[in-house]
Amino acid sequence: MFEYSGQSNMKRVWLECGGKSPNIILADCPDLDRAAAAAASAIFFNQGQMCSAGSRLIVEESVRDAVLEKVVAAGRQMPPGDPLDAATKLGAIVDDVQMRTVLGYIESGRDEGAQLLAGGRQVRADTGGCYVEPTVFGGVQPQMKIAREEIFGPVLAAFTVRDADEAVRVGNSGVHGLAAAVWTRDVTRAHRIARALRAGVVYVNCYDADDITTPFGGFKQSGTGRDKSLHAFDKYTELKTTWVDLS
Known about the structure:
By secondary structure, the chain is α/β, with parallel strands linked by helices. 28% of the residues lie in helices and 15% in strands. The protein has a 7-stranded mixed β-sheet with strand order 3-6-7-2-1-8-9, sandwiched between helices. It has a two-stranded antiparallel ribbon with strand order 4-5.
């Protein structure tokens, strides 16, 4: 896009490129049930085909088992179904090419030693649709492909950390920085972590909160510029400087 801009008439280019958004759940999370439900929704909503999908779940060790159990249970309540059925909570991947890409990442996760906790298969193949089960991997390490690359499908990579500092290091370890979340009852800690996370949007004790009056956009390889809010007008305005010598 930047190359095209330079070759044409220098059109302004603002990019929002998605990423591998980290969702951090600490041991002092005020409500593990709510946090786990939000974690499931953050990755399985729209089959994970969202720029801000919470595709990396980073959990403090002492609550890991409880959180993952709840996330897996929530995923199992979302079997893929007909998108035209009002009862369906998880529909189809956009096309066969993307479905094959998602399944390839799942295979990569297995090959690199991540623990498949749920899902991992194509389903409803007889319908001709492109359906993939809600998939959860545990024991993910930052160097794994499923930890580094955006899958754009219903695949959650879960990490275990010892404390908040390690959670921030893992959260910042990739090349993306669109969104992030932290769950803690300590407001001071929440502000410290939100400041440390290299993401354009940080949610505290929630995920995917939104309003047209607040800026939305990413750091690093998650894009340039901001949508929504008054900052979105930067795309359409020019700043001008005039010097006047009054001597």
